[in-house]
Amino acid sequence: MVTNPEVAARDADVIIAGGGMTGLTLALALAQAGLSVIAADAEVASAQAAPTYDGRSSAIAYASFRMWAALGLADALMPHAQRIEKILVTDGRVRGGASLLSLVFDRRELDDRAGGEALGYMLENRHIRATLAAAAAKQSALTLIAPVAVTGYAADAGGVTVTLADGRTLRAGLVVGAEGRRSTIRAAAGIRTTGWKYDQTAVVCTVAHQKPHDGVAHEYFLPSGPFAMLPLTQNRCNIVWTERPAIADALKKMSDADFMAELSARFGAHLGAVSLAGPRFAYPLSLQIAEKFIAPRMALIGDAAHGVHPIAGQGLNVGLRDVAALAESIVDAVRVGLDVGDGEALARYQRWRRFDTTSMALVMDVFNRVFSNDFPVLRQLRGRGMAVVDAIGPARRFFMREAAGGSGDLPKLLKGEALAA
Ligand SMILES: Cc1cc2nc3c(=O)[nH]c(=O)nc-3n(C[C@H](O)[C@H](O)[C@H](O)COP(=O)(O)OP(=O)(O)OC[C@H]3O[C@@H](n4cnc5c(N)ncnc54)[C@H](O)[C@@H]3O)c2cc1C
Fold first, then answer.
1. Cβ 282 vs Cβ 204: under 8 Å
2. What's the CA gap between 51 and 265, in Å, rounded?
3. pTM of the predicted structure, to 2 decimals
4. Alpha-carbon distance 25 to 23, whole Å?
5. Which residue from 3, 189, 277, 414 could staple onto 295, CB 3.0 to 4.6 Å apart?
6. What residue ranges define each of the domains in the chain, with the CATH number in brackets?
7. Would the CB of 248 count as within 6 Å of ligand 1?
8. In angstroms, what is the span from residue 408 Cα to ligand 1's centroid?
C-alpha cells in the first residue's frame, strides 16, 4: 500500500479550535464516523461545567436533541432535560400585567409526531457541557487538549498547521473554528464579520418556585426587550431578562432582596413563592455573521460563524445544524476517497448552511426590533399579528415545526440517523 507521507505526518484528520457545545458535538460526530480528531479549548472541561461558568440554559429543538441521541448522549442528558409542553408569548407591561393578546404554542397540536414528542427540551448548559466532555473522554479517536488557546493556523496544499498559545504546532487535514464570537481561526483566515451591537444585555439566572410549571415556557415582550421564564427540572425556571446595559448592570450588582423584588414584578404570582437558585450572569447582545463560513482547509461553525439574538432561543440550535451539515459533508467526501479538507466538501457545507443562518439571524433581529419597544402603533400592529397567528392553526403549527428544526433539507444526524463509520 502506498501511504501519502503528508497525510501520514498529520497529528489528526481534523483539529477543532474550541471544545464548547458545538465544537465537542462535531468532534464526537467525526470521531464516531472513524476520523481522528483533536479539540483544543482555552478552558478545562471541569471549569466549563461549574455552576459559576455559564448560567444559561438552552431551549433545545427536537431535531437538535435527536442528533445528540444519535451520538449516544440521550441517556446522560435525559435526567436533566425538561420537556417544553407549551409556549405562551405575551405582549406585556411591567406591573401593568400581560396584554390579553397572547400567542399559545401547544405541543398537542403537533400530534402527528411519534410518541407525543415535546416542543423541545430545556437543558442547563453546564449539564450539556459535562455530558459532552464525559463522552469525549471515552472516545479513543478524540483527544481533548485544555487549557490551551488556539492562536492561528496556516493552510498549504498538504494540510493545515495549527498554532497553540503554548508554542506547540499541530498538523491536520482540516481545521474547524468553533471558538465562539471572537474566533481566532476566523481572524487568521482574514474573514470579516458584519453585524451590530444591540443596546441590550441579557441578565440570566435560575430561580426555584413553589408550584409546578407544567412544562410551560413564558415569554413577555417588554419595551426594553424580552423577558423569558423557561422551565427547568425540579420546579425551577431559567430567567432571561433583557434590559438596557446600564439597568442590566445595576440588576447584576444589586442585593438579592432588591433583585427578587424587581423580578417578582415581572414574574408574577402564578408559581407561588420564588427564590434565587444560583448566581446572576450578564450577556451583552449583538448580531454577528461571518462573510464566509469556509476558506481552504478551514470551516467555521456555531457562534464563530454567526451570533444571533437569543429572543427565540435559536443560537445553539443553528450551530448544531452547522455541526450536522459539516460532519456529513466531510464524512461523505472521505468515504469516496477524497481528502478530509476537500474544497468541494467545504463548499457543500457552506451552501447548506449560509442562507439558513443568515435568514435566521435577520428574522431574530426583526423580531427584536418589533417587540422591544413601546410605540403605540407598533404595539397595536404586533398585537394584531399575534392574534392572527393565534387564530390560524396552520400558521401556529408552521412556527412550531420551524422552531423544532425538523423542516427543510435536514442532514442525517438531525433526522436521528448516525453517520456510519
Ligand atoms: C442569554 C442567552 C440565551 C441563549 N439561549 C439560547 C437557547 O435557549 N437556545 C439556543 O439554541 N441558543 C441560545 N443561546 C445561544 C447559545 O448560547 C450560543 O449560540 C452557543 O453557546 C454557541 O456555542 P459555540 O460552541 O458555538 O460557542 P461558545 O459557547 O462561545 O464556545 C466556544 C468555546 O471555545 C473556547 N475558546 C474560545 N476561544 C478559544 C481559543 N482561542 N482557542 C481555544 N478555545 C477557545 C471557549 O472556552 C468555549 O469553550 C443563548 C445566548 C444567550 C446570550
1. yes
2. 26
3. 0.92
4. 6
5. 189
6. 5-82+122-196+286-370 (3.50.50.60)
7. no
8. 24
